[in-house]
Amino acid sequence: MSSVPHPVDEKLPLLRLAPLAVQHVLVMYAGAVAVPLIVGRALKLPPEDVAFLISADLFACGLATLVQCYGFRGVGVRLPVMMGVTFASLGPMLSMANAPEVGLLGIFGSVIAAGVFGVLVAPFISRLLPLFPPVVTGTIILVIGVSLMRVGINWAGGGQPTVTRVVDGVPGSFPNPAYAQLQGLAIAGFVLLVILALLKWADGFVRNVAVLLGIVAGCVVAAALGLMHFERVGEASWFDVVLPFHFGLPTFHLIPIVTMCIVMVVVMIESLGMFLALGEITGRTIDRKDLTRGLRADGVGTLLGGVFNTFPYTSFSQNVGLVGVTGVRSRWVTVAGGVIMLALGLLPKMAALVEAVPQVVLGGAGLVMFGMVAATGARILAGVDFRNNPNNLFVVAVAVGFGMIPLVAPTFFKNLPHDLHPLLESGILLSAIVAVALNFFFNGLASAEDAAAEAAAAASAAEHA
C-alpha cells in the first residue's frame, strides 16, 4: 500500500498553506456576511448589534468549516469545503423578522431545531445516492455554476441593479445609480485579466494563488482610486468574544421551525450536489457514508449557528469553483481557512480589513470561479452516454430549463402558496428534482453499486474528453 497521501489529505507547508487559505476566505467573505447584514437591518437592530451578528457569523463559519473539513467521528465529509450562511434561508428569516411574535430569538430557535433535524435525517438523505447518476449530478452542477454567475456579475457591477426605497410610506424597487459604473467595471475587468494572465504564464505556487493575487492587485487599484476605505478598520476593536445566546435564550414556534426544516432539506440536497462535485474535482470517490457525514456536518453547523447567534450553514459553491481553478485539493487549506474565519470573528479589526475589499474587485474573480463550477458540470456530462441513450438529452434539457426559472423570472411562482417559495426559489433544487424525476422516468433506478460504477466510468471518460 502506498504511503503517499491522497491530494485531499496532503499537508502543505505553512508558507503555501497560509495564502491559499486567505484566498478561500476572501472569495467567500462577501457572501458570508451578507445574510446577517440583511437580517440585522430588517430587524432594525442598532449598528453595534448588526456588527456583532457579523462577527458571530464569521466565528460560526470557522466552527462549521472545521467540523466539515477536519471532522470527527461520524461527522464531516473531509473535503476542501468552506461553510457559510445559506441564502436559501434568507426569505423565510425575513418573514420571521416581520412577525413580532417571532423576532430574532424565534429565528435562532428555528435554526437550532433545523440543525437537530438535519443531524437526524442525514442518513436518509444520503441514501438518495442511486438517484444521482452522472447525467443528474452533471446537470445539477452545471446549473449551480450558471446560477452563481448572477452573483459574480452583480459583484462586478458593484451591488444589486435595483435598490429598495420608501416613497410616501410605500417601499418600492428603483434602479441603483451606482450599479455598473464604468470605473467599477474597469476594476473588475482588470482583476479578471490579472487572474487569466497568471493562469497562462505563471507556474507552480503563483498559479495556485492566481485568484488571491488578482484580488490583491484589484485592491491596490481600488485604494489608489479612493474606492477602498479603511475608516472602519481604524474604529474596530482588536478583540471581542462571541458568546452563546448573546441576545437571550431562543424561543421556539412551530411554523417557523417547520419552515426552517424545509429549508434544511433544500440545503442538504444542494450540499449533496456540492459534495459530488468536489469528489469529481478532487478525484476522491464519495460513497454514501461520506455523504452521511457531510450532511450531518451541515446539521451540526446549523445547530452551532443557532447557539452562537447566527443562521443555517451550508457548503459555499464559490469555494468549490476555487478548488477547480487552483487545482489545490488539500482539505487542510480550508481547515486553515476555518481557523482564519474564527480569528476574524474574534478580531473585529481583521474582519473590518477584509470587509473593506470592494465588491467590484471580488466580481472579477467571481466570473472565473463560478464559471469553473459550470465547467465541472459540463465535464461530467461529457462522460454521459447520449449516443446510445438519447433520453439523457431530455433529462438535461428540461432540468436546466427548470433550474433557470428563478434566475430569469424571479416572480414566475408568485401566485403559488407562499409556504412553497423556499422550494421554488432555488433553481438548484428545481433542477435536482426535475433531473432525478426524469432520469427515473426514462432510465429507472440503479443500485448504489451500479450508480457508483457509472459515476466512475463517466469521470474517466470526461478526463479524456
UniProtKB/TrEMBL annotation:
Protein name per its UniProtKB record: Nucleobase:cation symporter-2 family protein
Query: Sorted alphabetically, which keywords does the UniProt record give?
Result: Cell membrane, Membrane, Transmembrane, Transmembrane helix, Transport
Q: Name one Pfam family in it.
A: Xan_ur_permease
**Residue ranges crossing the lipid bilayer per the database entry:** 20-39, 51-73, 102-124, 131-153, 178-199, 211-230, 250-278, 332-354, 360-381, 393-412, 424-442
* Entry keyword Calcium: no
Q: Which NCBIfam families match?
A: ncs2, NCS2_1, pbuX
- Its domain of life reads Bacteria
What topology does the record note for this protein and the membrane? Multi-pass membrane protein
Where would you find this protein in the cell? Cell membrane
Family according to the record: Belongs to the nucleobase:cation symporter-2 (NCS2) (TC 2.A.40) family.
Classification via PANTHER family:
PURINE PERMEASE C1399.01C-RELATED, URIC ACID TRANSPORTER UACT
